[in-house]
Specification:
Elements: H1 2-10, E1 14-18, H2 23-35, E2 40-44, H3 66-76, H4 91-98, H5 126-139, H6 146-149, H7 163-167, H8 173-186, H9 191-213, H10 234-241, H11 248-260, H12 265-278, H13 283-293, H14 299-310, H15 323-330, H16 335-341
Parallel strand pairs: 1-2
Helix pairs in contact: 8-9, 9-14, 11-12, 11-16, 12-14, 13-14
Bound molecules: flavin-adenine dinucleotide (FAD).
Flavin-adenine dinucleotide binds next to α7, α9, α12 and α14.
Length: 347
């Protein structure tokens, strides 16, 4: 409704956007197409690092093991350049004149405040994404240490924290890639600078996996058609989301997610592994819960990682995390668990 009004007031006759292929995302697109039937839609595969037309592999033959995919692409595929300049319209003035963009208050969100302990205290939008890169790469040079810190749990700088901007299209994987190249030329090239690209290739991989397997990524048996026996006990689920399991490390991570919409990669791996491989709960319930809260929710990364951890996806070794030893290793002095498990004023 709002978009139609806006399109009419601005006399928009074409929309350019990223191509989506998963069911619910397509439903949104198709609804929009119906409502804006007088507008031409142009969609592109622009959310990838490696453009699907450039990789040396047919989609049907896409390897089910990440390393093979990564090596093939690294050897044979160039990352496309970013567009150098985009003509900017002075939308804000025109918006003010013709159209009022709804505010958060209009949508019923009266009091939004970031949790004081959040590890993601950032703002939305592409300027904020660029500021984050400016801080993480150029000012603090934290990029040079990324490989050693990326499994952290506390604070804003243990990892790049670029996922939320990537997920909503405020920044692209290619922009990050070319900024890393620049950093490697002007500041330093090391294992850490490479590792950020390595992780972006994981992101791409899950997108290719969902392109290949379509709706199977939402099936209980996953892309492997595994028939394990799964539970769906509501009480068990509630204990997990409310941080009341017997594992303080899982609890701390789940409380962080509930209170802030953020959880580190290490936390996500442990919380998901515990849910699927110790509680034997239908992994899709856990994935849907993450989907409902994660500030960086991305359909391909979320369901791809969940399948991987539940043993119905792309982990050839079907591993299970030992939660206690993970807590000892990554939260040695218990600071992270203390932060989230303590009763606080900011419930
Ligand atoms: C169960 C589970 C669910 C997840 N759900 C999501 C999700 O909905 N959205 C999402 O963006 N990521 C998801 N991830 C992947 C990963 O946890 C986040 O991308 C990462 O924690 C974001 O923090 P960062 O930007 O600081 O990452 P960094 O460590 O700085 O990595 C840089 C970028 O690489 C990509 N990346 C890193 N790790 C992964 C990974 N394992 N899989 C795919 N891409 C990766 C992300 O785009 C990330 O922004 C999930 C992981 C697990 C185990």
């Amino acid at each position: 409704m709002v978009l139609r009004e806006y399109a009419e007031s601005e006399k928009i006759d074409a929309i350019y956007f990223q191509k989506e292929w998963t069911e619910e995302e397509l439903k949104v697109e198709n609804n929009l197409r119906k409502k804006l039937s007088h507008i031409t839609f142009h969609s592109y595969y622009d959310q990838f690092l490696f453009h699907p037309e450039d990789i040396p592999i047919n989609l049907e033959q896409l390897p089910e093991v990440f390393t093979r995919f990564r090596k093939e692409c690294e050897k044979n595929t160039n990352v496309r350049a970013c567009y150098t300049s985009i003509k900017k319209f002075n939308l804000s003035n025109r918006l003010k004149k013709n159209f009022q963009c709804p505010t958060l208050e209009d949508m019923g969100y009266l009091e939004i405040q970031a949790h004081p302990n959040t590890a993601f205290p950032f703002k939305g939008g592409s300027d904020a994404a660029k500021n984050r890169i400016s801080h993480y790469f150029w000012k603090s040079k934290k990029l040079s240490y990324y490989k050693n810190t990326r499994n952290g749990l506390l604070g804003i700088d243990y990892s790049s924290k670029l996922s939320a901007w990537l997920a909503n299209g405020s920044i692209s994987a290619r922009e990050i890639y070319w900024e890393v190249q620049k950093y490697e030329t002007e500041v330093q090239k090391n294992q850490s600078t490479y590792w950020l690209i390595f992780e972006l290739i994981w992101r791409d991989y899950f997108k290719f996996i969902s392109l290949k397997h379509k709706n199977k990524i939402f099936h209980l048996g996953g892309i492997l058609d595994k028939s394990y026996s799964w539970e769906n006990d509501l009480t068990v689920f509630k204990k997990w989301i409310n941080g009341q399991t017997k594992e303080p490390f899982v609890n701390a991570n789940m409380l962080e997610l509930k209170k802030t919409g953020w959880m580190s990669n290490r936390g996500r791996q442990n919380a998901a592994s515990y849910f699927a491989k110790e509680l034997f709960m239908d992994w899709r319930i856990g994935a849907a819960y993450f989907e409902s809260l994660l500030i960086d929710y991305d359909v391909h990364s979320n369901y791809g990682n969940w399948m991987y951890i539940a043993g119905v996806g792309n982990d050839p070794r079907n591993r299970k995390f030992n939660i206690r030893s993970q807590a000892d290793r990554y939260d040695e002095n218990g600071n992270f668990q203390q932060l989230w498990n303590q009763k606080s004023l900011f419930e």
